[in-house]
Write a sequence for this structure.
């Protein structure tokens, strides 16, 4: 067996150019597929972890089919529904910074009081007491970097809807480990957020509702709809489905890539399966004439196929894991992160989609081995005399 | 040692291109005998060697070697028979061009459970014997005709088989190398091997090295003489 393995390695080396080409294509295809699926899986894990922290119900007001401001006082009525533990109005939205061509996500919080300050301290580097002094903001690292590049290191002038300017001082920057969530975030006091968006003092963007028992979520959502028929009530489950749809859409794009890769792979497979070269057939004939059994020949061919396919698979998966988790998936990550947001230098959580890696394995390695063995078996079962004459 | 009994070989039976290569051929070869199969091209010499080597099966009749019906052997047993009993020297030597001389010579030993030391020892023995050791690492495709010939002989003998079959071994060689081959044959015979050579090279007949000659014409034995 050891000698046959040595012969297989020698055989691979002898046809080095061709085998190197097949190995490279094989490894590249698996690298792309494993990379895509690994990054998707890691992002999905991260997104769904984030989803877990979201409120059970979000209430939005809809006018003419579009979301519009909601009366913040409605939160008090919703909080009275049995089963609701809390209902809070939120003020948030996007601010387009034309000079850099990016959107910031502005989130208004109730007040930079003592409790907020201590919460913020755990996730952001705050600059002294500035936070307590009115028009201040805590920004994500991406926002800080974008503003600094445009000479706004300590403060920024927001352009309000009426065209006037509003100076807001940077009071802190979110810590790097929160980058995935905070990169494009600007946290301001709720009143300031309303001012920046041109909203009235009673208005909120939406209302978030906390429910103690998950089983009651659909019932409470229905009750809210009954009390306020002009609202859209979004549950956590709706959000999960929405996230899933986004990933399914992106997965669809990558499914197309997958098909192209598989197509290329099957061209190689077809080439292999359509028969051996006359040189390879002759070699098989010589081996048979020298006393090799058909089984010996097939073992050598199996070793050759294993070295190429399994070697390429293991190398490609290792490279893909290193590329995604070690290098943070340059290029590929940008495809997933969209266009308008600031692209955060986040670190993907290490999580492997073993099922998909197994699927890639079973759709490539055994197929390649079969495509190598079948024509070799055909040639090996011919009379040796016929092959070497 | 070798018994060929009423052997007939028909290629493509029942088809328009049916061809009878051998017809009712019978003869025996004794131990340590050197027999030359002669006859023009297409007379059936190579087919007869293939049948004795169990590379093909006869359409009718049987081939018995050392008491074993090799013409009836299943494929795997035929392979073992070839590996342990037959050393085959092919017309065009049939070396694997991209393997070195050493690798070509040890090819018949590769399916055996031999360690590298044993493989090397066996290869070195035959390489020394046939003066090819200095080319051990040279690729077969870069060898001269004489070197290819010596490598092919060394490969045929590396398993120390009792029977050597040679199919037109001098067909691609000049007179000098052909004479050298006859010397090697003589040496192999001295080692106690049984040798069958299929040839129509007059050199073999002029030097009268064979114990016996069997002449074939159109697949039939026309003459068998000592």
């Amino acid at each position: 067996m050891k000698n046959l393995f040595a012969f297989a390695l020698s055989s691979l080396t002898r046809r080095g150019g061709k085998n190197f080409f097949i190995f490279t294509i094989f490894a590249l295809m698996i690298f792309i597929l494993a990379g895509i699926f690994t990054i998707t899986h890691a992002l999905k894990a991260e997104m769904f972890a984030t989803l877990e922290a979201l409120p059970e119900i979000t209430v939005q007001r809809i006018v003419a089919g579009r979301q519009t401001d909601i009366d913040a006082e409605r939160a008090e009525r919703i909080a009275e529904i049995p089963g609701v533990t809390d209902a809070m109005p939120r003020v948030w939205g996007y601010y387009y910074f034309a000079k850099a061509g990016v959107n910031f996500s502005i989130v208004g919080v109730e007040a930079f009081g003592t409790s907020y300050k201590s919460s913020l301290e755990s996730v952001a580097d705050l600059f002294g007491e500035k936070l307590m002094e009115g028009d201040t903001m805590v920004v994500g690292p991406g926002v800080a970097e974008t503003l600094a590049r445009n000479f706004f290191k300590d403060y920024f002038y927001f352009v309000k809807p009426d065209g006037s300017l509003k100076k807001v001082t940077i009071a802190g920057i979110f810590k790097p480990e929160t980058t995935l969530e905070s990169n494009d975030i600007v946290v301001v006091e709720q009143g300031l957020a309303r001012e920046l968006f041109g909203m009235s003092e009673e208005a909120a963007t939406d209302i978030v509702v906390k429910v103690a028992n998950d089983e009651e979520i659909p019932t409470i959502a229905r009750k809210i709809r009954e009390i306020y028929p002009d609202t859209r009530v979004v549950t956590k489950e709706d959000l999960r489905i929405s996230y899933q749809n986004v990933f399914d859409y992106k997965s669809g794009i990558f499914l197309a890539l997958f098909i192209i890769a598989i197509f290329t792979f099957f061209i190689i497979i077809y080439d292999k399966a359509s028969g051996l070269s006359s040189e390879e057939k002759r070699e098989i004939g010589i081996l048979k004439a020298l006393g090799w059994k058909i089984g010996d020949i097939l073992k050598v061919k199996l070793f050759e196929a294993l070295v190429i396919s399994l070697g390429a698979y293991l190398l490609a998966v290792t490279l893909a894991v290193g590329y995604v988790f070690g290098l943070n998936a340059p290029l590929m990550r940008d495809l997933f992160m969209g266009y308008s947001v600031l692209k955060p230098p986040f670190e993907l959580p290490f999580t492997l989609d073993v099922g998909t890696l197994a699927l890639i394995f079973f759709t490539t390695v055994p197929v390649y081995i079969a495509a190598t063995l079948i024509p070799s078996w055909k040639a090996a079962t011919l009379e040796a005399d016929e092959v070497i004459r | 040692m070798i018994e060929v009994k009423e052997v007939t070989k028909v290629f493509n039976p029942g088809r328009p291109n049916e061809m009878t290569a051998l017809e009712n051929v019978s003869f025996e070869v004794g131990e340590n005998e050197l027999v030359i199969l002669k006859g023009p091209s297409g007379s059936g010499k190579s087919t007869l060697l293939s049948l004795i080597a169990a590379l093909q099966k006869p359409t009718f009749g049987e081939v018995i070697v050392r008491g074993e019906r090799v013409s009836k052997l299943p494929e795997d047993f035929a392979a073992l028979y070839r590996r342990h009993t037959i050393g085959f020297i092919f017309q065009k030597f049939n070396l694997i061009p991209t393997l070195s001389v050493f690798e070509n010579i040890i090819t018949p030993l590769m399916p055996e459970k031999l360690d590298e030391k044993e493989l090397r020892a066996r290869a070195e023995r035959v390489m020394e014997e046939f003066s090819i050791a200095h080319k051990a690492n040279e690729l077969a495709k870069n060898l001269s005709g004489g070197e290819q010939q010596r490598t092919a002989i060394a490969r045929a003998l590396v398993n120390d088989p009792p029977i050597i079959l040679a199919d037109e071994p001098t067909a691609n060689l000049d007179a000098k190398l052909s004479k050298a081959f006859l010397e090697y044959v003589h040496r192999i015979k001295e080692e106690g091997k049984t040798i069958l050579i299929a040839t129509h090279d007059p050199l073999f007949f002029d030097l009268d090295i064979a114990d016996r000659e069997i002449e074939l014409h159109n697949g039939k034995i026309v003459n068998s003489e000592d």
